[in-house]
Design a protein that fits this description.
Elements: E1 4-9, E2 12-17, H1 28-40, E3 46-51, E4 55-57, H2 62-66, H3 74-83, E5 88-93, E6 96-98, H4 102-107, E7 110-113, E8 118-120, H5 134-142, H6 144-151, E9 157-158, H7 159-165, E10 170-171, H8 177-190, H9 193-204
Parallel strand pairs: 2-3, 3-5, 4-6, 5-7, 6-8, 7-10
Antiparallel strand pairs: 1-2, 8-9
């Protein structure tokens, strides 16, 4: 079974990380496939990212990270493609989000999460810089001080605090996670594409 699943339902594309036995940790092949999908998703009206199991993603596969994946440009390729999408992007976080995997969620327009999700980015402890665009995107959501709390203070943020600081937009029980994401997507899916894209651009300033 593929580690990345893509379901297309008209203008709604749902991408699922499917490596739950490894906490959905990301290999180079997975990242490249995700980036290919995100680049092709210019044709989608809405893109939903989610995962199987109790963890959205633990970040880079440790063996591949040690072999150089942590410094690969594919992370930026993926987050940049998501951020550039003309449609609505939603991270439906089925569990904890860690490390470089945070980049794809930060690049989304919206983030919803289950109550037990935790958020941390221990890249400094591992001797690496974050991916270049991640700190600025995080700071835009939570402010510079809280971004430093996560990136330099190494703090693990639980879902209620993540909601309070703006790192996630809504907390949703697990069984309702995808239905909630689809409900949020409904108006964008039925709107004229140029109107939805125009609103997104106005919100971005």
């Amino acid at each position: 079974m593929s580690a990345i699943e893509l379901e297309k339902d008209g203008g709604l594309w749902t991408v699922t990380l499917n490596r739950p036995d490894k906490a959905n940790s990301l290999t180079r092949a997975m990242l490249e496939e995700l980036a290919d999908i995100a680049e092709a998703a210019v044709d989608a009206r809405v893109l939903i990212l989610t995962g199987r199991g109790r963890v959205f993603s633990a970040g880079a596969d440790l063996d591949e990270a040690k072999a150089g994946l942590a410094l690969s440009p594919v992370w930026e390729r993926l987050s940049g493609a998501i951020a550039a999408l003309p449609g609505l992007s939603i991270a439906a976080l089925n569990g904890t989000l860690a490390g470089g995997a945070m980049g794809m969620a930060l690049a989304c327009d919206l983030r919803i999460a289950v109550p037990g999700a935790k958020f941390f980015y221990p890249v400094m402890k591992l001797g690496f810089l974050p991916q270049p665009s991640d700190p600025a995107r995080m700071a835009a959501l939570v402010g510079p001080s809280r971004a430093k709390l996560i990136l330099m203070g190494g703090q693990k943020i639980e879902a209620p605090e993540a909601l309070q600081m703006g790192l996630v937009d809504r907390i949703v029980e697990g069984e309702a996670l995808l239905d909630t994401a689809r409900g949020i997507a409904a108006d964008t899916l039925t709107a004229k594409p140029e109107i939805a894209t125009g609103i997104k651009r106005l919100c971005q300033g």
